[in-house]
TrEMBL record:
The record marks 4 as: Interaction with substrate rRNA. It comes from Bowmanella denitrificans. Belongs to the RlmJ family. HAMAP family: 23SrRNA_methyltr_J (MF_00934). It comes from the Bacteria. The active site is at 161 (proton acceptor). This is Ribosomal RNA large subunit methyltransferase J. Its EC number is 2.1.1.266.
Length: 280
């Protein structure tokens, strides 16, 4: 858990999917004047330098955000996301989920940012110095989510994106979300996960457990950009959202075909949006 640093992966195709979903969800919450809370369980540093040794070692951003910036995408939500990101990319930076949340929230909204890695939480504090509505917590995000539920105000979004380098992360997601949902049934829970050939059974079990939470709508979005081969590693990623807002699925269905076209190398790259549970 303490070895993972997101700087190696900032701006990759998984970040693109995750942050597009995050933007759509936050914008939906902001349509009403009422305040809301944003909870990030695995915040990382908040902002990433793409000239750093970490980013340059992998170069994953080149096949993610840079490829999307170079594409002539017409979907209005993709274009909105790219406009947000380009303000950072022109200075060789990429905004992580806490920074995107900062740009998309208002003064009445609250940001609760958790990070357990000692170095990363210091970077996060430095990047968010002076942001009055951001509260940074050096704690385990799974434990912190349960402890913070239900938050005040009770409108809000939780973003959960652990590294999944530790096998227990899959079960920790299920346990923490199940417990938090019992206390906070109206919260929107967005969980990112990797698509890994060697761990496909773990993600499938996690999705099945999350879709079994009583009285919820659950939608699953997947982006598959490489062959599902044991040697590939991460061939794509997914976002499962509990209590998605109205029309969120329609917005994604509109942008996913263009997103796959912009990011794919593999001719059989694909996308899917599947309702795992409906409360009605």
């Amino acid at each position: 858990m303490f070895s993972y640093r997101h700087g190696y992966h900032a701006g990759n195709h998984a970040d693109v999917l995750k942050h597009l979903c995050q933007m759509l969800l936050l914008n939906k919450l902001a349509e009403k004047d009422k305040a809301f809370v944003y909870i990030d369980t695995h915040s990382g540093a908040g902002i990433y330098d793409l000239t750093s040794a970490q980013a340059q070692k992998t170069g994953e951003y080149k096949d993610g955000i840079d490829r999307l910036l170079d594409a002539d995408c017409q979907d209005p939500n993709i274009r909105t996301y790219l406009k947000l990101v380009d303000d950072y990319r022109k200075f060789n930076r990429y905004p992580g989920s806490p920074e995107l949340a900062r740009t998309l929230t208002r003064s009445q909204d609250s940001l609760q940012l958790m990070e357990w890695h000692n170095n990363e939480v210091q970077n996060l504090r430095g990047n968010f110095k002076g942001v009055s509505n951001a509260h940074i917590h050096h704690r385990n995000g799974f434990e912190g989510l349960v402890a913070m539920s239900p938050p005040k105000p009770a409108r809000g979004l939780v973003l959960i994106d652990p590294s999944y380098e530790v096998e227990s992360d899959y079960q920790d997601v299920v346990t923490s979300v199940t417990q938090a949902h019992k206390r906070w049934k109206t919260g929107v829970f967005a969980i990112w996960y990797p698509l890994l050939a060697k761990r496909r059974d773990r993600s499938e079990r996690m999705l099945k457990a999350l879709s079994s939470i009583s009285g919820t709508d659950v939608v699953d979005i997947q982006l598959k950009l490489l062959p599902q081969d044991q040697e590939v590693g991460m061939y794509g990623s997914g976002m499962v959202v509990i209590n998605p807002p109205w029309q969120f699925d329609q917005q994604l269905n509109a942008l996913l075909p263009e997103l796959v076209t912009a990011l794919k190398d593999w001719p059989d790259a694909s996308h899917s949006l599947t309702w795992l549970a409906r409360s009605e």
